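Researcher: Predict the fold of Bestrophin, RFP-TM, chloride channel-domain-containing protein.
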Amino acid sequence: MGKNTIFSGKLTRMKLRATVIKDIWPEILFFTLFSMIVALIDRLSSTKLAVNNQLLTVLGVILGLVISFRTTTAYERYNEGRKLWSSVCVLCRNVAQIVWTQVDAERPNREKPELAVPVLHGTIEKKSMLQAVAVSVKHMLRNEPGIYYEDLYPLIAFLPRYAYASDGTDANDLLPLWQASHNKNVAPLKRVATRTSSLMTSLEDVDERTWSISYRPRGYHEFYPEKVLPVVYTDHPLRPSRQPPTTGFFDYFPILRPAKRILRYFKPKKVETDEDETFIESRSRDWDYLVRQRMEPVESNVPLQLMMYINSYSAFLQKSNLLSAPAGATLTNTINALQDAISGLDRIKATPLPFAYQAHLRMTVWLYLFFLPFQILGNMGYLTIVATAFSAFLLLGFLEIGQEIENPFNYDLNDLDLDGFCLALQRELHEITAHPNFEPSKFCFNSWNQPFAPSDRRTAEEIVRDDNEYHDKETGLDQIQKTLIRSWRQVDRDTRH
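Model: Structure tokens for Bestrophin, RFP-TM, chloride channel-domain-containing protein follow.
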């Protein structure tokens, strides 16, 4: 029997934050107090507020259907996002396996031996591809533009930055992947940026560079996977891999958020600058940030740029005859499918439910809850207060859940664990590249392999070495077939109930 995830373990603060209670409790409180006022006026005064409840039945059925449709639509987006992420992981693994197993790392050149590529060079080429795609998709889906992140920049720092190989010193020659991140008008960071050990002003000042570590030292027991990434040069402070908005007082008391905006006008805005050049950033949901995103669309499509390099590498392998025709076609189809999956994820992110539908549905729920006490007051009396609170909890809760999971790529506790998916893919890609391409003769014919078990439990080493019935030129193949049939019969018999 499956474990109940709600009641298992302690009721932690994280579990409470994963619910929608903190978002809907002001509305529940409002309608509860309103129903209390209605009940007290009806019972303690001569004014009777009860009305016919026929409208309640009609509106209740319609509202239930609409909220059900809203929740179902939001979950479909959530589920489709999870399926597409699974496709991205599977396709990345497939591309890695094709490149790692089908492409020969050693490339001899009989006509021009000086142009031959040694095994080390070929291995480095194969190992350098595909690691950053999923990470770049994660940041794109979270509306985090650019490439200067602790988990992304170390994986793509080796890519070319300029359009020309020689004298590419003019900033206008920067490729799209780098140009957007160097643009001064790019939107501000979302939390305090991590400081690199050396903030360099120019990419060309190689002699003045020092190594900048892409991770910050933390406690021994703390989880910080960026420490396994390369240590690279950087001319730009790296943003954290995760930039969730901090949960503060106003998140638990959303009814006071208008006061926060009013107080902001009386608080002087300043940017602290000290020896470490710490950057103070605004949160992504601030209005000025949203306006800046609309007015200055400077970010480039980082996953598209990375896929261009992968496609270029695939074309290079096929032009150089390093891939067979079937393997080349499979690789091309896999890369195209990977781009389709990324486009599907972007479609979910960029196509929210129309605002008019969301606003009309919420206003309908409010009107329904507003008139609910008047319609049930005559039959329920003071229980109207409890019934209204319970109805508000159900209707507003489902409405809020649908709105929360509509975009499953953010940092909410109910959203998809994109960071976990990327780290799992990182482990799998390293596991693939850790697999040596042995020839079968190196491992099949030893004392650990019993190829004809269970009918013949001799080892492969014994079968090959000793003179037996399988070595007969005329009947050897028949004996092998008989052994395989006996094995099938025994397995079929012993594995059935």
